[in-house]
Write a structure and sequence with these properties.
175 residues; alpha+beta; Ubiquitin-like (UB roll); 4 helices; 14% helix; globular
């Protein structure tokens, strides 16, 4: 924005106060590099990340809760584990709404077979996991686990507790 002040032009910074949303892209396919899951760059549609309507999913995923009860779910291809859990009422919090800024979606990948199939954690995820209570060797953040057909049958265990700097007990709703 440009404004005039005593006969001269002054540049005034403009703060964005609205968000611009893009139309969902529905037909993106995974891009394979060296034909392995670890080397995959997965492009997913926005529909998979927060949409509670539509297909229920076809990929079996188990969540093991704090009380050791097991919940069987069906994930959509490209859906993140956090959104899958929220869609099925599993208490995986996700206080930062999957923006990779907290540890409230911390979980454990139970089977080594599936652990080996996941891409390595990024440095940011590793740094956040260092702050998670009850950290284990098989710890990951649910917002960073992208469900694919190769991960069929993956078992994710929730930790005894998580640490939420927002408000204890607050569970953000996907939008």
């Amino acid at each position: 924005m440009i404004s005039l002040s005593v006969g001269r032009i002054v540049r005034t910074p403009v703060l964005a106060t609205t968000f611009s949303w893009h139309k969902p892209v529905r037909d993106l396919q995974p891009v394979m590099i060296n034909n392995s899951l670890k080397d995959r760059i997965l492009l997913t549609s926005t529909r998979n990340h927060g949409d509670h309507s539509g297909d229920p999913g076809t990929i079996p995923v188990q969540f093991i809760l704090k009380d050791n009860s097991v919940h069987d779910t069906l994930a959509r291809e490209g859906e993140i584990a956090l959104r899958l859990a929220q869609r099925h009422g599993i208490p995986m919090e996700g206080a930062c709404e999957a923006s990779l800024a907290c540890t409230t979606c911390h979980c454990y990948v139970e089977d080594e077979k599936h652990w080996d199939m996941l891409p390595e954690a990024t440095e940011t995820e590793e740094d956040l996991l260092d702050q998670a209570p009850f950290l284990e060797m098989n710890s990951r953040l649910g917002c960073q686990i992208i469900i694919t057909k190769e991960l069929e049958g993956i078992r994710l265990r929730l930790p005894r507790a998580t640490k939420n700097f927002y408000v204890d007990g607050h569970v953000p709703q996907p939008h």
